[in-house]
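Dear support,

I submitted the protein below through the web form. The confirmation email said the job was done, but the results page showed an empty box. After a refresh the structure appeared. I'm attaching both so you can tell me whether what I see now is the final result or a partial one.
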Amino acid sequence: MSSLSSLVKDTAIYGLSSIIGRFLNYLLVPLYTTALAASTGGYGVITEVYSYVALLLVLLTFGMETTFFRFVNKTEEDPMRVYATTLIAVGGVGLLFVAAVLGLLPQIAAALGYADHPEYLGMMAVCVAIDAFQCIPFAYLRYQKKPIKFAALKLLFIVLNISLNLIFFLLLPALYALPATGEIVAKFYDPAVGVGYAFGINLFCTALITFFFRRELTGFRYRLDTRLMRRMLSYAWPILILGIAGILNQTADKMLFRHLVPGEEGKVQLGIYGAAVKIAMIMAMITQAFRYAYEPFVFGKQAEKDNRATYAKAMKYFLIFTLLAFLLVVGNMEILKHLIGSDYWPGLKVVPVVMAAEIMMGIYFNLSFWYKLTDRTIWGAWFSGLGCLVLIGVNVWGIPRYGYMACAWAGVAGYGTAMVTSYLVGRKYYPIDYPLKSMAAYVLLAAFFYALMQGFAAYCQNAWLQLGFNEVCVVLFAAHIVYHDLPLRQLPVVGRFFKK
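What the results page shows now:
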């Protein structure tokens, strides 16, 4: 139980920074969706460009984040040599990438449909290279069990990014429109730049965070151990393929959309879909927070005898609380929808489907440790690749027929495929006795409460009564968790109130 308590504590800290950060970052969604009306397609541009950024981040880290944890926890390896080798490898690839993109920027911009604004791609290329490099010192903080600094830097980036966006998308446009201040503001603000400010601000904030890694980037010898690097790359390349497939599962729909729905209509619909998906990302926050704590936890426990039982418990608790989050989001949709502009509300119907897909992705991530711990990472590439092919196939077939709803269901199909195949093969190579009956019971119970919410909404059109009924459903689900599976007596601080 002490192991799970440590995991809960670290997940809480990582999760707090992730959830607070994402919540603060949501301020950008109403800002962008108000400043950039759906009919302009401006938010569609942001959605598309950041989908490419997500893919590039995976390519530029090329599996070295997970590989770092695998090798730094090996007793025969020098931790600082592993760290230095990882930093040099990721940093070197990033520099080569930036040089290549800036050298071929006009051609790349024309190929992607941004010939009129190549600066968008140039700024984001530099930004993603810096971001990829920062992944390694951030991983080092996790290895050193320093979640406070990790969380502080993540939140600093978010707060600074939001503040500058508020200045350039809200304050300066207002001052620019006033006769008394318009001429002064015009010297450093041009409304024609539009979404370009979003990319420039991101670059500035990302670059600034690097200076806070002085302790993590100094005080040791930088040396590229080529023999170690070859072994690390041998472990990492299947993870890279896995990562590419995984990120394509999340972004392929956004990359394909404008090609399958061409013209301005494609930008408009992509913007609506991209804005609505932001509400569903609460599930991605929980998954990411769990991942930050779970990777070092798993690799650090691999020598213990009871690790499989611990992994099984962790999987169950992950599923329980993601289902609770699902009910919280869908039950409070009347409130959460105000996070995006009213022009984008038609896309809200994708939220439950996207959240279901994110739960499957989280389960797949938990299942993935059997092949990481047994050094069979090639299986991860096969699972994710198969899921990606299913997702792309559903998108190509469905988007022209059903629009962005096809994108949502494609995620369910893709993640579901990867999840099921990983579980079935894992039973042979690294069997873990997951409490499947109990987990299935929670899924059915959550589905029951969701159906009750939807049925009551169809019967009662009063928004406040709907919210009240939904909260009762959420409380009942939470009460079931506490009664059956949450050992409150054993939790730190809270447990004191339950002791005799």
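Response: this is the final, complete result; the empty box was a page-load delay. The two ends are 20 Å apart (CA to CA).
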